[in-house]
Structures are given as structure tokens and as C-alpha cells.
Amino acid sequence: MLAARLGLAKALRGVGPRVEGGLERAGKSKKLSTSAPPSSDSAVFLRQAEQQAAKNPVGGGGAGGAGGKGRGPGRDEPSPFILRSAAIAAAGALAVVALVDPEEYSSSNILVRRHPSDIFDKRGYPKRPVPTRCEQIQRLKQEEEFDLLIIGGGATGTGMAADAATRGLKTAVVEANDFASGTSSRSTKLAHGGVRYLEKAFKNFDYSQLHLVFEALSERKRLLRNAPHLSRQLPIMTPCYHFWEVPYFWAGMKVYDTLAGRQGLTWSRYLTPYEAVRQFPTLRTENVHEGTLKGSIVYYDGQFNDARLCLLLACTAAEEGAAVANYTEVVDLLKDEDTGRVRGAKCRDKLTGRTFEVRARQVVNACGPFSDAVRQMSDPEARALVAPSSGVHITLPDYYSVEGYGMIVPKTRDGRVVFLLPWEGHTIAGTTDSESEITFNPRPSEKDIRFILEAIEDYLSVKVRREDVSSAWSGIRPLISNPDSANTSELVRDHLIMTDRNGLVTICGGKWTTYRLMAEQGVDRAIEEGKLSPKGACRTPSLKVVGGDGYHLGLHTEIAQEYVVPHRPGAIDTRVAKHLTAAYGDRARVVTRIAEDQGLGHRLARGHPQLEAEVAYAARYEYCTGVEDFLARRTRLAFLDARAAEQALPRVVAILGKELKWGWFRRRKELAQGKEMLKTFSQGTTA
What we know:
Blueprint: H1 2-11, E1 24-25, H2 39-55, H3 80-98, H4 102-106, H5 133-142, E2 146-151, H6 155-166, E3 171-174, E4 190-191, H7 195-203, H8 207-226, E5 231-240, H9 245-260, E6 269-271, H10 273-279, E7 286-287, E8 291-292, E9 295-304, H11 306-319, E10 323-325, E11 328-335, E12 342-349, E13 355-365, H12 371-378, E14 386-396, E15 406-409, E16 418-423, E17 426-430, E18 434-435, H13 446-457, E19 471-480, E20 495-499, E21 505-509, H14 515-530, H15 555-562, H16 574-584, H17 588-598, H18 613-621, H19 627-634, H20 637-640, H21 642-660, H22 664-682
Parallel strand pairs: 2-3, 2-13, 3-10, 5-15, 13-21
Antiparallel strand pairs: 1-20, 4-9, 5-9, 6-9, 7-8, 11-12, 12-13, 14-17, 14-18, 14-19, 15-16, 16-17, 20-21
């Protein structure tokens, strides 16, 4: 087993830190130039792989696949070299897996549970509620100096805040809008290594793509383990309409499984045409452009609630002592008068309009697509780093997919990849990949919506209708610019960490799946640059977010039995109980307690499980400041069904107004802003 793992490490020889124009790949303390030979970096990565091999024999299967586009042969003309290489690698993988002790692998899946009495008081409310936003703003104003100030409240920024706070650093994080208001709430909701990146790695002999897959597969299972209520394993089907596709995709997914090693999920497998249609009834057996169905390869990846994970990372950081504040915009950076080093930021509270200064020994820029704007506050001559890419998704009725299965369209007519996934009782399809302008409120274009519908139509027996689109949204990926790339779909989704001449650390790029690793490496760099003294080592590899400690798969049954419905006799609806535990984990008890105490047990919109009590919970415990925060990110109603969100809008305004003590004018303003916000999701839907 050790020899096999070392063989895999040798196969990855040459994969190492990525360098562009003086920017170094995340986590390395020594800067590299573009002219430096890659051998030294490759040796570092190889040593790390061999050390890991010495500690961990290869474990049971992961999930995998091959799909997507890349330079090289088209789908009807696979490269013989690729087929042979993939088949050889897959055969080796099967030999290795045959030697693995299944008991050793399964023991790593045990979840540790905390007793509810350690989390809740006698009334059923949290013993350690997060400080309110007003308290956090006061702390930002009054604290003499923080160890670390993080600008940006997306996946990377909140991940860094949780990491730094649990190391004992005095940490602050500010976000110009709401947590996860940008790219972090508009992803495909997959925790995955990237089957299309794996195919590109082999087709283009691109080691950076291979390293990204290897890295993401290592982090995928940690994400699922640390946010168990927000995530799940999801089998994804790759339909094959040519005979050669069966061994091609099968071999590629076995490589995907092998790269995951002990962090793998369930082993990929082949399904006959009959079994594929039985598992996915809407799958087309005859594709007009491809031929008849020859079977499907099923692999496993993770699925998660992106916006709520980002939000709960911020809440986790707050519980660990970090000062976190949304709607707090950085208008300028503070610099030392003698050295010019960045030592803090001038901030503006967007809810009150008041400005204040936050001082810190080290400042980190984690603003995603908006990173260049902050970099230019530090150094006006800084060159552009971000190459924005637009990704559009649409929401469809649940019957377009199957609750327990997703599907990947491995290659559309123009070579891109589209996913069709069950999510929150609906189906989401996407994504596009095209150049975009950087904007706070990206909107999906009609062209992109049509592209997605046409792509899935070739693979589904159900009639694909334009009027079935209940919501559509667009997100901007902060890819790292590369002058040699012809388009954004060719850019590697890797991340970079750099320090400018004024000491500002910037972390950019990457993908949701690797947020924790990015955060760890970002904090490591901040500690080094700021000469900080943490009290402990990184704890995030096993740190559960808020709601995860007391969660278990049967929690919804306890919630259903314990909850006393205020407005009618009997137990809570099972769908509502499952929704509450999937969104809040062990904190679902608090939501039901609020519903009981204040009579907020009604649903907000017909046909959807969200309760009125969730609005009050969001205002008290999740830094919800307005209707957009609630409808788009505390719940995902705007993403699921824009019309249902509009139906719920007046009641959301009424409850938030009571919780946050709004006057008549503020309530009218929120109602108008909510309707305007929902237009960005309802664009292209039918009335």
C-alpha cells in the first residue's frame, strides 16, 4: 500500500507552488520568481506526499469522473494515449483498494456528539449566544489594536476569522455588504475535486490542474465532516452514449477515487442502461446528437449550503471571540507614517453612516472579485490580479432531477460542463463560464439561461420548458489572471497569496471546497508577516461550525416530537423538521422554541418549509439586518423561488421590524428594496 501511494506521489512529481509575476502559490514563506526552476518546488511537494504516504496507507474509494472541456481530442475522438494512461492508473487503483482494510476506513467516519445540556440552557436557548452587531461595532471602535484585521466576509475571509480566533489571535473581520453576499452564495453548491480539471490535467499535461484536484479532494471530506448538517454525499451520474465513453469515464473516475485516498467518499461504479434509467427516470435513453444510452458511471461528491456555511463560519468565529461586522465598508487603509506599512483600515458603518478606525498589527485582503480595489488602496500602482468569470445557474422544479442523484452533462455543444442537481426540494442547473465585469449585483443574461436549458434538454426525457425556471442567478468567480489563457474556462481555479511592499497580505482565487486550506495558509502568512504570536496551532481540520456539534442524522425526529405546534395540535410536519435540522443543525431547537414562545409557527410561503420563527432567529443570532439578508442567505428562498419569496416579503418585513425596532419609514424602504432585489432572481421567469 505504501509503495502504491509513493507511486502516486511520483506521478504527481513536478506539481508544486504556482508562481505568476512574483506572486507565490499559497502557503509558502519564500518568494519565487517566474524564472526559477520548478524542480525545488516539486521536491517539496513530493516530500510532503511521501511523508503523508508513510503515515496514511491508501483508503477506500472516493468519487470521481472525467468530463468537461480541454484542448485535445473531442468527445468522439478520444486520445488513445489518454485512454491507455487512465486505464493503467485505474487498474493500479483497484489493486491498491483490494488491499485496504475496510474497518480502518470506516472508523474515520465516526461523528462525536455533544450533549444538548452543554449547548442550551434550561429554556432551550444558547448558553453562548453571539454578540449583537451593535456590540461588535462598539468593540471594533474601542479595541486599541487587533492582531489581525481581515477585509472581506466571504468563504475565505470568514474561514480565516474562525481559524485565527481558534488559534487565540485577537481577530476582526469586516464585510462591506452581508456575509456571503457575493460569490460565496452563488456557487454550484458542490464540494468537489473537479472532474473536469482532472481531465484537463491529463489532456494538457497540466500539473497545476492535477495539484488542484489532489488538494480539493483532500479538503472535500473535511468540509462534509465540519458542517454535517449543511452537507451530504451526492452520487452524480455521467451518462454514456458511445461505447468508448464507458471505459473512458470509468477509468477517469477510478483515478479520481485514487487521488482522494483515505479522504475518499463512496467508490464509483458502472450502471447498465436499465439501472441508470431506474435510478434517474428522467434520463433520456436516446440522445439525438450522441446515440443510444450505453450505461452510466456514477461517482460521489459532496453537496452543501454555501451561503449558510459562510454565515456560520462568521458565527463560529464570533463565538470564539472574533469581532465580526457585516455592512462595514473599508473606505481607506491606515499606514504607519514612518514606514508606510499598512496598520489598519478606516471603516464606515453603512447602517448608520458613521466612520471609525480599526487598527491591527496585520491586515489581510480577502475580498474575492474586489481584491484589486483594496490592493490599490495600499499601492496605487498594483497591477490587476483578478480575471472575473461569470457563472449562471437556474432553478427548476424537483421533477427535473431525482432527490438522491445528480447528473453531469460532460460536454455541451460548445464544450462546457453543466450540472443538474437536486437541492432544497428543487433542481438547480448550471453553470456557464464566461468573461464578466465586476459588479455587486450581477444578473443572468437570457443567452446564458437559454444555453443551460438547451444543454440539459439533450439528456432529459422530460419536456424542458422556459416557464419552469423559478429563479436564476449569477455569481462572479475571482479567477487569477493569466495573459496566456484565451478564455476564463481555461484558467486554473487555484489560489494565490501575496504580500505587497506595504505589508498588505492578499489571498485570492481558489474554490469553495478548498476554503479551509486557503484560510489556514492565509493565517500562516499573516502570522509570519505580522510577527504575531498565536496561542495554539490550527484547529480547523476538525472544527465543527455552529450547529454541527449536536447534530446527528436522526435529529429531525427529535425536533418533530419535541415541538409543540402553537396554532394547531399535533407534531411538526416532517418536511419542516428536516428543513430546520438541515439549515440549523442542533440550533433547530432554538427556532422551534421561538415558534412556541411567540406563536411564529406558520410557514412564510405556501409550498415551502420556512417558518416565521426563522426570521426572529436570524435577527437575534445570525446578524440579519434586512429582508435581503434573510430571503437570499439566512434562508435560500430567493434562490429557490422568486415568486414565493415575494409572497413571504411582507411578513418578513413585519417580523424583522419588530425584532430590530424599525419605524414605518424603514419598513416601507425594506419592502421596496426587497422587491427590487427579487427582480435580480426573477429575471427570465414567467409571471
